[in-house]
Specification:
The chain has 383 residues and is of the alpha+beta class. The protein contains 15 helices and 8 strands. Helix content is 62%, strand content 14%.
Length: 383
């Protein structure tokens, strides 16, 4: 098989071709490569005859990877061993080809855990680059221009309505209620209707948790996290807390989506073209400013507040229900807390971006990394 044909096979996920190509790339360093996969993650086990810096290995791998037409995996988890001892571990994100280009030229990979450019309290952090500041500024300015036009705001409001009703529907399904989000063409906005709780949906969720526990039965940390998650889910699902979450997560989902958009703008995660980052920033800031204006009007505009208190179609709005039925306080207090979370939304996106390397590490340790003792047991069992 020629080198170009082998790269085409590797791009389709052929493990034999991947091992041959990456093994050839690391052969000058005398490093033996073993390749496995787990879902969308490619696992590379390196056996190094001597201590080899992670930067050298990553550069050699990047120079080979940039020659591939595409990637069948989203991440590569690289674990280097010397004398049967683990020396270092790295994660390459294949959804950022431009970062691989930079690494291949000898630069630092932005997701590189072994070569953090800065640390806080021993945690590697990702500072904002000049390009990141440009993306933020562009999105910030464009969102204000959109909000200044009532016509454009009206055109974009269905997006917020859709996200809002999706939040209600997701919470309903999560706790066993079949729900359908829809636009309310009679009174405006949206509405999410659901029936009585279906025990089969709850049973399906517990079955999924049990299946995850079985799949990760050799991962003690993952099992502990799943146990805590199951306990919290049980406490919430069978108390009035789940009803409160159903009401609150309409507006909550709006802020969650704003965080996702702002994070993608900062990180470029999943972006194919450079123009996508300022567009994500624009939409994220638009959702933040839209909700900021909504909270301000509800707090300080008596006419707007009275119209909100009237409800629509015989139904009370979310904040009215939260204040009356769950928190037993006045509307101003609930809206004040919501305004605080709206202001906090860009800061949350920034923190997620700043500590993204820690998040990747925790995700790998919980859901991808396989302990050395369990790996040896599996290899012994195969023999």
């Amino acid at each position: 098989m020629t080198c170009s044909a082998r790269r085409l096979a590797a791009a389709r996920g052929d493990l034999e071709a991947i091992q041959a190509l990456l093994g050839a790339a690391l052969a000058p360093q005398g490093i033996a490569v073993t390749v496995h996969q787990r879902r969308e993650c490619l696992l590379l086990r390196l056996q190094c005859p001597t201590a080899v810096a992670a930067a050298i290995v990553l550069t050699l791998l990047a120079r080979e990877l940039i020659s591939w037409p595409s990637y069948a995996h989203s991440n590569i988890l690289i674990t280097a061993y010397q004398d049967s001892k683990e020396r270092w571990q790295e994660v390459l994100d294949l959804t950022h080809p431009h970062e691989l280009q930079r690494l291949a030229k000898g630069g630092h990979l932005r997701q590189n855990l072994a070569l953090p450019r800065k640390e806080e309290f021993g945690i590697p952090v990702q500072p904002l680059s000049p390009r990141d500041w440009q993306v933020i500024a562009a999105g910030f300015g464009l969102s204000l221009l959109l909000l200044a036009s009532e016509q454009v705001t009206f055109l974009l409001s269905p997006l917020i309505t859709l996200v809002h009703e999706m939040g209600h529907a997701v919470m309903a399904w999560l706790f066993g209620y079949a729900a359908v989000p829809a636009f309310d063409f009679r009174y405006g906005g949206g509405v999410t209707l659901h029936g009585d709780r279906a025990g089969g949906i709850v049973l399906l969720i517990y079955t999924g948790l049990l299946a995850l526990a079985y799949f990760y039965r050799h991962h003690r940390l993952t099992l502990a996290c799943l146990g805590v998650l199951t306990l919290l889910y049980t406490l919430v699902a069978f108390t009035p807390v789940h009803e409160m979450l159903f009401v609150a997560m309409g507006h909550g989902f709006e802020l969650i989506f704003a965080v996702i958009f702002l994070y993608r703008a900062l990180s470029g995660w999943g972006c194919r073209y450079p123009i996508e980052r300022p567009l994500y920033s624009m939409v994220g800031f638009f959702i933040v400013f839209f909700n900021m204006r909504f909270a301000w009007q509800l707090q300080f505009n008596p006419v707007f507040r009275e119209m909100y208190l009237m409800g629509k179609g015989g139904m009370d709005h979310d904040f009215v229900r939260l204040a009356r039925d769950f928190f037993h306080t006045d509307l101003a207090t609930v809206v004040g807390f919501y305004g605080f979370f709206v202001v906090l939304t860009p800061a949350i996106a920034f923190l997620l971006y700043r500590y993204r390397q820690l998040m990747v590490y925790l995700f790998v340790r919980l859901f991808i990394f396989e302990g050395e003792s369990h790996r040896r047991r599996r290899q012994t069992g195969r023999r």
